[in-house]
């Protein structure tokens, strides 16, 4: 019973991360039509930034987190300008370019952090919240889930309540019709990848104190983001968030009662099933919200 | 001269869709382009709006070249388009669609008054303003697409087959509104397969055949032309 309740809590925390990973991928795919394979590496860079600035140079955790967000956002903007924009209308070219970035960032992480054991960041918010003796939530995780949920709510507000947000969704729904309304597609792409990068950087910075940091940590991120995106319905942000929470429950429980590898295998199996049975995903339409 | 196309050629991967067409539109004009399927009518409008690049020729609007401008810049100059197939943003509400039509504008008071005038033309859009565009009927979506284009406060309005697939009574309603919009000084280029309707509404017309202008002139004289009668009016 204790394991059960603990797993429920862990599932929500995991779900927050899964959603944070996936929405950035969905946003870039929807607006730019590019599958950004380097999205997991962007998260990794966010985590490394916190490790370098906070653990190595003693800069406060919050400032380090903010710098990670800005740095990864900036990397995203560079990718848009120099790798994706020249490949507009060529999804395969964009994808191959993003795989190039994936390797470059992994090598950069090796250069910065060296080989050897995974890095760790001491939790800046130590201590544990204990509820009713049997539920234990480390404060660091509470902080992470709160920030993740706040970021997702902010994104939701931006996309549904602001004119700029509507313009992003319009481009995702119909590029040409959006261009005919005077929406600048390149500028919209920069906003999409900027937001996507910022969320990836944030996810990495939030993960830094609670997980291992190593150059290929992005693999798990991209696999999870793919599963969540496809199950949620490619291009559907609300579908991705819902699928993230559902998949987090499955993943956490299977990990708790069996093992993490089996959990990921289950996820991939579900993804394949969705692709076969309902390729439009559980939220079943095209793109947005 | 408000808009002029001079000897414009457009190719889709080496296949010529327009083979040197020249078209002129005066301020406040009402011009129609008629022609059968595949004649190049949509390509003409898409090229004016910057969605296709001419391989040769020149397009000028208010003495400015449009030939190399992207679609968003062309819209800002005052050329709006109601594209073929309506192309409303289906997952957005009616109101959000209309606001996106005014995306490049900053003057909130002017936007508000244009919104009211669009709702004046199309009261049904007001009733459905909070609904998603995908819940609208075909005719309502066409009205939304026209309203969205009007929200940019255009000088020139391009419409690509607005009557397609609509009930005659809705077509009539839209025709009436196009005349009203034109009376207020907005120049219109109307592409139609329904040549009878188009020649009835427009002042002048061009007949496109396989990427060329086959005939041009006053709409009323085109309507009396023997070739137009047999080929497009079914008389
Ligand atoms: N995207 C495209 N790719 C290739 N050929 C096209 C494309 N769009 C139109 N065409 C061709 O260009 C010609 C003109 O098409 P279009 O301008 O759509 O004609 P209309 O609107 O008069 O029916 C046709 O032969 C059509 O097959
Ligand atoms: Mg057409």
- Spatial extent as radius of gyration of chain B: 17 Å
Give me the Rg of chain A, rounded.
Answer: 19 Å
The CATH architecture of chain B can be given as 3-Layer(aba) Sandwich
What is the residue-averaged pLDDT of chain A?
92
CATH class of chain A: Mainly Alpha
Strand order within the widest sheet of chain B? 6-7-8-3-9-10
The CATH topology annotation of chain A reads as ABC transporter involved in vitamin B12 uptake, BtuC
Question: The biggest beta sheet of chain A, please?
Answer: 2 strands, antiparallel
What best-fitting shape of chain B do the alpha-carbon axes yield? globular
Structural class of chain A: mainly alpha
**Which band does the percent of strand residues of chain A land in?**
under 5%
Helix count from the secondary structure assignment of chain A: 11
Q: How is this structure best described in words?
A:
The complex is a heterodimer of chains A (289) and B (235). Chain A is mostly helical. Chain A has one domain (2-277): ABC transporter involved in vitamin B12 uptake, BtuC, CATH 1.10.3470. Chain A is built from eleven helices and two strands; from the N terminus they run H-H-H-H-E-E-H-H-H-H-H-H-H. Chain A has a two-stranded antiparallel sheet with strand order 1-2. In chain A, helix 1 (2-32) runs antiparallel to helix 8 (185-207). The two termini of chain A are 37 Å apart. The mean pLDDT of chain A is 92. With 235 residues, chain B is α/β, with parallel strands linked by helices. Chain B has a single domain, classed as P-loop containing nucleotide triphosphate hydrolases (Rossmann fold). In chain B, 39% of the residues lie in helices and 26% in strands. In chain B, the strands form two sheets. A six-stranded mixed sheet of chain B has the order 6-7-8-3-9-10, sandwiched between helices. A four-stranded antiparallel sheet of chain B has the order 2-1-4-5, covered by helices on one side. In chain B, a hairpin with a 2-residue loop joins strand 1 (3-12) and strand 2. Chain B is globular. Chain B starts with a strand and ends with a helix. The model of chain B has no long low-confidence stretch (mean pLDDT 96). Residues 12, 15, 17, 35, 37-43 of chain B line the site of adenosine-5'-diphosphate.
